[in-house]
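Case study 2.
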Amino acid sequence: MSQQQEVERKFLVKELPDLANADQTSIRQGYLTQPDDSVEVRIRQKGSKYFMTLKSGEGLVRNENEMTISEQQFVQLWPNTIGQRVEKTRWKGKLDNNLCFELDVFEGALAPLRLVEVEFESVEQTDDFEVPTWFGQDVTHIKGYKNKALATDGIPLIA
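Prediction:
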């Protein structure tokens, strides 16, 4: 199991960038915990790989513990996530400043939502981040845009 602290900002997307040099992966994930639990436990199929992740904390800095699970374990747990699922296509690429972005294009009930996340080495690095023109509103601190909230409540009515 890998444990790490992630520092990331999340934005709505105004317009899709050129994705010719980005990698694409289909993702489906479901949540095993309830919306008001203080931690979230999710299972995820990312391409042909399967994971279970525990996340805690809110906003800019969160703790994340992730471990690989088997396809059989994923299939066994998947029915427990009914009503708490997200399906999306993730595009991973590099920004001009060499930071990586993860652009999620949501499917199903969450279409046409598009969110982009950028991970940083430190909180201080987020202060110097020059936001690309294709990024929209910063929604890092809006709980309704967390994947767990999207999975249970849908797209927030207000930003």
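The chain has a mean pLDDT of 91.
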